[in-house]
Amino acid sequence: WNHKPSYGLWHLEDDKTLSITTGKTALNPTMAQNTPTQRMIYPYCIATVTVDVSKLNNGDYAGLLVLQGNYAMVGVKRENGQNYIVSVVNDKNINPGIIGSNDVSEGKISETEEIQSDKISFMVSADFHDMNDELNMFYERDGKWVFVGSWCRSM
Asked: 16-69 pLDDT, tens per residue?
């Protein structure tokens, strides 16, 4: 978890999928409660996740987030009852290596398209080799990975 979890707001379903609810609205992902985390592997790494967005409330996000002093995310945002594929990037490296340190900005949000499916898969591919810190973000549509955006951490 990225913070101490709120145990009453997550549980395992009968099919062993993780169900997560947020307890309050957060300004940005670094402040969000109940965010599971996984360390990415040097020098290259690919991560995928499938999320069920059927129970998102307006203003909620779900997806795949990469963070280290700043962050990039590919996911879904629910707005006015509709789900949109988005990328969110905050490349303000306020205090490198300290997640969320003095970070009070929402990041730059780019919407790509409205999506009708309740279950959506996301993928990020990361290149950390030679301190590159480059990231490519995708979502799956009709069995194919669709490029959403890229990000490179400024050194």
From this structure: 888 887 777 777 777 777 777 777 888 899 999 999 999 888 888 888 888 766
Token look-up 């940005």 returns: 28
3-state helix vs strand vs coil in the chain, percent to 5? 5, 50, 45
DSSP 116: -
Residue 109 has φ and ψ, to the nearest 5°, of -100, 130
How many C-beta atoms surround the C-beta of residue 61 within 10 A?
A: 21
SS3 33: coil
At 124, is the secondary structure helix, strand, or coil?
strand
CA angle 106, 110, 114 (to 5 degrees): 120
Which residue has tokens 């997806």? 63
Q: Report the relative pairing of strands 134-141 and 144-152 from DSSP bridges.
A: antiparallel
Token pair 């379903």 in the structure block, residue: 13
This prediction's pTM: 0.80
Query: What's the token pair of residue 19?
Result: 């169900």
At 106, give phi and psi (nearest 5°): -85, -15
